[in-house]
Structures are given as structure tokens and as C-alpha cells.
Amino acid sequence: MDAGKPPLRTDIQALRGLAVLLVILQHARAGFIGAGWLGVDIFFVISGFLITSLLARDIGHGRFRFATFYFRRAKRLLPAAYVTFAATAAASFFLLDAGEWQDFTRQLAGAVSFTGNFVLLQQTGYFAGAAALKPLLHVWSLAVEEQYYLLLPAALLLVPRRGWFAGSLAVLATSFALCVALTYSRPDAAFYLLPTRAWELAIGSLAALAGAQGPRRRRLVSLLFLPALAALFVVPIWPLPAPNFVNIAIVCVATLVVILRRHDELQDRPIPNALAAVGDASYSLYLVHWPIFALLNNVYAGDPSFGTPTPEVLAGAVALALLLGFALYRGVELPVRRLEARSPRHWSLAALAASLCLALLPLTLAARTGTHAVRGPAIDYAWLRRDNVGFDAACDGYRRLEYTMRCSNAAHPATMIWGDSFAMHLVPGLAASMPGGVLQATKSACGPLLGLAQIYRVYTREFAERCLGFNDSVIAYLAAHPEIRTVVLSSPFYEYFDPARRMLHVVDGQARVESPDADAALAALTATIGRIRALGRRVVIVAPPPGDGFDYTHCLERKARNRTLFGRFIDCDIPLAQYHASKRRVLDFLQRIRARAGVEVLSFDAFLCDAKACRTELDGTFLYRDDGHLSYDGSVLLARRMHLDELIAKAAR
Q1: Would the N or C end of the chain have less CB density within 10 A of its end CB?
Q2: What is the mean pLDDT of the segment spanning 495-506?
Q3: Which overall architecture, per CATH, does domain 393-547+584-609+643-651 show?
């Protein structure tokens, strides 16, 4: 995470050291680090400062050349990155499962084309569980910096020098406003994309253009120096309970103050010097640390759940990251940086060839060893793990339920399956067994509770309003179709107890945002059941299958293929005590709704669980597709073996 080559400053190198240590400790799940990811934001400000300082100097002296500038950047950044990418690709080929390997090949192509942030935005949200399994997840920040490097030189050349400061200020303001707006509507986009991150780099650019000249400005910077230094250590440990951009802004401004202060006395102090030594190797450390953690997450079936290594294992991973990071710095980054640049053209051709080789490396590995999908049993695991959307993806409702033959297996179905994705995953099994046919009435992340919908990250208030409208349309559809005699409700229900979420709750005809509340959810579900019964229909709830956040199919695939897998739960079953502990509130809620509404709740527990654990595989069939949803085959097998159609017929009332 470097940019530019002005004389090294101990204070800036110490900031780099602090930044990379924060990131590493965050990924090592150090309990005392609340927001170590802020280290990346420190890097952004430093990079903006250094790259702008370099460009302003070269343009001012009339010696700027695009070819020279980009050659220096490539020489500085690519060798260490490409060594890391190649080693990661080789390890990933043998350690990743089929789905993660497919994702990795796209991540690698994005990494060498400076579009890694776009690839990762398409693959997953950074805060999603699957993100922890992606070995090149960290290239998003490198891509953001590289995109800034591509645009900034042209901008400085096109804009007159007297307009540089105002232009940077405009970029900062526009980008920050966009960041704030998208944080609430598209948080993943706000995280990954340059337009919503440019304000952080622009802060560094402003520092390079404005400096701290003048006695009043120097006094102000001196006064702010100690508070800024404190903020850089305190906020990553105890972040404010506020949107991410607030903590990011504090850390970025604090970094700006430290850079402007130019505290020369720091080079005689042991702590800054130690941090500066780490900062010298910060780019290499950043490159190597995350693939180690991600691959460890892929192979470890630990406690309390899959992909959560013990503190001792994580401490070993930190030590390995430091060892390999400094080795990469000493063995690759530093020697290449010192090489004479006699022929930029030859270096450019070499970089292009290396990029193509890296992009093609996955194909080469597959050709020499056999395709990734068939090493081990000849099973298409990616197909087994496909989304279980029920009849069709078109059945994931938008604003209202509208009949389509793609979402039913009969012209006049007798049973409706209503709920979110946990209702969707019941459809294959019930469609194959329920007499009279079934109708799918589902919308992802939208439980079957009238007047109550979640607001969380990508599930904005607008989404919640659509959810409320969709559920209202289901009741209207049910009223208009008397041939539907039975309604099956299902949801994981945990979102109604999660303190990180908010709820859009309709009370007396007015929608208001509230904190999650089990009593409100109980009342909403009771009212929903009452509305269904008032229409003369029978109703039953199917509880979510056993689960504790463990990605069962991922584990079972690795087990079937003899992949490296270690930790406490290598048999891939769900410990019963852990399941009950993790889902206690959901289980209690289902007991309460049974007593209050007089509705039967059907459970998979008695069939799947014994006194110690719950099965995730039956007769060679993977029952789950992820950490909670049933697979297509699992849904069909369980419905048949449990005689779920008969249970529903007896229990519905």
C-alpha cells in the first residue's frame, strides 16, 4: 500500500506500521481491536499524500512523463504482489473447495487488471461470512489505490495548478457525500468503490498541496497533534457507536494532522522506530497476511464454528504472516526496487507477460493436475451448493405476489408455502410430495409477518416497505383463491431478535422504525396466523433446520475430497448443545408462538438429531447448501424420509 518515493519520514513509516498491524490484528480476531480495518483508511490518506507530493514536484519541475510514472508504480507494486498471487494460487488450488476456487480465479483476474474491487463487489459483501474464505479479498484496497493513481496524473495536468486545491476539495466533498448516501442504501458499494473512497485519498492530496505553512496553521496543527495521535490508537480499539464513515473520518483527519505536523523528534523514540521498521515492510505484510488467514478459514473446522480457528492457531498465523511478509520485503520488494531502470519498455513487457501468466495460472494448474472439480469424487459440488430458490428464481417476490406457472406445480394448488428463503428451501421437497400441488409465495429476507419487516445493511427501508407490501399481497391473494386450503409458514426468525438490525413496524396504520423486539414479532406472527384462519384456511409453521453458523456443505465437500481439514468438528455434524445455545432465542420464540396462537410447529430436530449431534448428511446426500438452507436434494430427501406431507396434513389447523 505504497505510493511515491519522497525521502522516507519516520512518522509516515510509523503510521504505515500502525496501519498494517491494526489490519493484521483485526483479521486475527484480536479481542481488544474493535475496528482494526481502519488501518486501510490510514493507508489511503498516506497514499494520497505521497502520490500527490510526487506528482506536484515532477509537474512543477517540468519532468513528469506518464510512461515513467506508471513504470515506477509497476516496479514498486507488482513484483511483490505477483509473487504473492502466484503462491496463493498454487496453495488455493489444493485447499479451496470447488465454489471458492471458481471465485478465486475471478479474484485473480481482477487483481492483475486492477479491478479486484469490482469483482469482489459482485461476489460478496465484505461483511458477509463467505468473505472470510476468499484468499484475495484484500486486493479491493489495492485496486482502489491503483485506480486513483490512474486518474490523478491526468487530473493534475488538465487542471491549472491554481485550481488543484479547490479541485481536490471538490472531490473530497462529492465523494464523502456519496459515501454517506450509499452507506445507507448500498453499503457494499460504499465499501468497495473508488467514488466512495476517493475522499480519503483526497485528504492526503490536500495535505500535499496545502502543507502546514504559516504560523497560525502550524500552531493549529501542533495543538491537534496529541489528540490526533491518541485518536489513531484509541478509535481502532474503541470505535464510536456510529456509522462507519464517522470513525473513518476521525482516523483520516488524525492521519492528516500527524503528516502535517512532521514531528522529527519521533525518529529518536523506540516505539515510533519499531513501528517504522514494520512500516518499511507494510506493503509486503499486507499482501501476505490475508491469504494465510483466508486459507486457514477454509481448512479449519474449529470452535465455535467452521472457519473460526482457536486463539493459539490464529497467533501462529500472525507469526507466519510476519515471517513471510518480511521475507517478501527483503527477498523481492527491496531488491527489485533497487534495480536500475534502464529500459522501461522491457519492464513493461515483462509486467504484461506476468499479468497474463497469472491470469492463466488457474487453467494451467487444472490442465496439469486434472480439473479442480473432479479431483476426488466426480461430483459437481458447485451445483450441489447452488441457491435453493424453490421452483424458480422468478419466485423471489418483489412488491407483490403475482401468480405464475413457474411458481406452482398445479393449476389450482391446495397448499401455499409462505415466507423467506427458509420457505423457499422447503419447496422442492413439498412439491414432490404434497397432494394437490403447492404455490410458492416467497421473498428473500422477508419473513411471513404482517406489519413487520427488517432493515439491515442492503435491506434498506425501501426494501422493508416492499416486504410489507409483498406480505399484504399474499393475504389478498389467499382471500381471492379459496382452493388454497393449507398455508405453510417458515423463516429463520432470528432477525427479529438481532440488536444490530432495525424493524419497520406498522402500528395503527403508521410505519415506524424500531429496535428488534421478540414481543412485537410474536404479536405480528400471531396476527398473521389469525388473518389466515379468518379466511377459513389451516396453518402450520415449519421451523428452520438445526444450525449454528457452520457451513456444512463446505465441510462435507472437503471431507469427501480428503482436503486438509482440522479442528474439533471435522466430522461436519452439528453439536447439539452448541445448536441449542446458538438458537436458544429462536427455539424459545417458537415455543411461545405455539402456546399463544395454538399453532403446531414442525421441526427437523427429532429426525436429524440424537443426544449429541445433528446430522448434515444422509445416505450420501448433503442436506444443506450453506450454513442453514437445505439443498435441493436435501429438501426432497428429508420431505420423503420424514413424510413431511403427512405431518403437515395432521398438524395444520
Answers
A1: C
A2: 92
A3: 3-Layer(aba) Sandwich (3.40)
